[in-house]
Amino acid sequence: MLGIFNGNILPVEEIKISPFSRAYTFSDAVYEVVPFFKGKPIAMDLHMERLVKSCHAIGIEVEHSVVQAEIIELANLALNNSNGYVYYQLTRGVDKSRSHIYSNNLQCESFGYAAHTSQTIAPQKAKIVQDIRWARCDIKSTALLGNILLMNQAYAAGCSEIIMHRNNFITESGSSNIFIVKDAKIMTPPREANILAGITRELLIKNFSKSFEIAEEPCHIDLLAEANVVFLTSSTKGIMPINEIEGNNYIFSKDHPIFMDLKNQFDKFLETAF
What we know:
The chain is of the alpha+beta class. 28% of the residues lie in helices and 30% in strands. It has two domains: 2-116, Aminotransferase class 4, branched-chain amino acid transferase, N-terminal domain (D-amino Acid Aminotransferase, Chain A, domain 1); 124-272, D-amino Acid Aminotransferase, Chain A, domain 2 (Alpha-Beta Barrel). The chain has seven helices and 14 strands. The strands form two sheets. The chain has an eight-stranded mixed sheet. The protein has a six-stranded antiparallel sheet with strand order 2-1-6-5-3-4. A hairpin with a 3-residue loop joins strand 13 and strand 14 (238-245). It is globular.
């Protein structure tokens, strides 16, 4: 696997970091995942915009053009015109010692790698869980301990995904945004600080709201039992349906016409729009 570290491309096993990197001691870092379809980046401008916003939110300076050039270079070398993604991380830097108060004028540390993605993703079984994450999920931080604990709790219960909620209102999944299809209406929780502004979510809403009834509104967990289809969106998985929800009366309508039409149109959109 090829990676890039502070501008140098090399095999990931040759990359060495300091134990005093603030990514290691505090997860003082943000990241982005840029998908590639047949070697072409999907919505690169939106991914770069979100990465810059995350950097600004925690006070890291970033050269947008340098980051984008490194992502493209790494993808061209590693993905070979196939489907995949580039993970790219920016850290505040390496401090002299572990301290909550970071030193001034630290040099930003960058790391990325490229990986191939599967062509098909099977429907998932999900577990409903209380959202225990911090309040600024709109920042794409590498501090994902809440997600990790909940995802592994679900995995131990025989589930591969989670549906998180706060006070019985759905927020998102472990690494995806969530949509609920009920009859002819498609609903998704509104974009606030408690969810991440997903790029695939944004592409779907921006480009298909005229053809489908898509509403950003609070979604109570009771909606799950009434839904025809619950599906997730992410940069690496596209549109992925949930076929079972633990302890819930949700029945997956596999051939629901609204869902099938939306998925087919969105898949074609990704092939041609970029």
